[in-house]
Amino acid sequence: MGFFYLFFLFISISSTTNACDRCLHQSKAAFFSKASSLSSGACGYGSSAASFYGSHLAAAVPNLYKSGSGCGACFQVRCLDSKLCSKTGTQVIVTDENKNNETDFVLSGRAFMAMANKDMGKNLLKLGVANVEYRRVPCDFKGKNFTVRVEESTQKPNYLALKFLYQGGQTEIVGADIAQVGSSSWTYLTRNYGAVWDTSRAPAGALQLRLVVTSGYDGKWIWAKSVLPADWKIGGVYDSGVQIDDVAQEGCGECDEQIWN
Hints:
14% of the residues lie in helices and 35% in strands. It is mainly beta and 261 residues long.
């Protein structure tokens, strides 16, 4: 198992060296009129997404969605029309994949309007598509701990599917293990899709969880010593007792001097 994760971690960290999310990028953004179109998207957050950033949700292009590891990433997005839009723009969280290569993001209507100057939101909506500038920023869930939800697809006693929620900082989860509390016999989880991980060899009893988390080029283990009680329920939501708040510190090469102003 150690070799598996060292290999997995090497591949994941190597892939982040090809791009820097924290650089400023220019593209276009469109919007969905209903946030439910994004909450029910490829990340699998469902109704949980309503609690993210005031429903400022986004579908991101594949290089930002990253086959699901980009789920839960936060971005500052602002439109470039100074007559309609503010300098600060708004923060959004990735909850879906945008397979239309004409825009990097499709935002919820609320997030799209939030880029506008006061009383200009409806005017911005009339554009439909806006030229934007964006960069990745840390997610902040106001003190909420990393949380897991037992998905309805779970079938006791062997098959267990978990949705990961409230992943803070500028991080990506690239690996996960689960074991009975007090045991050193770990079973690895596989990303089923988006933010949902699963195993067909779930241990019995109360469960602990450990994650391989990357932040930029840096990777580390995060260990939740007790995340599911022995009587865990399908549909249950469980606080891990730990926070993920790492922020990448290394430089981004040629874009180091770019300033959001």
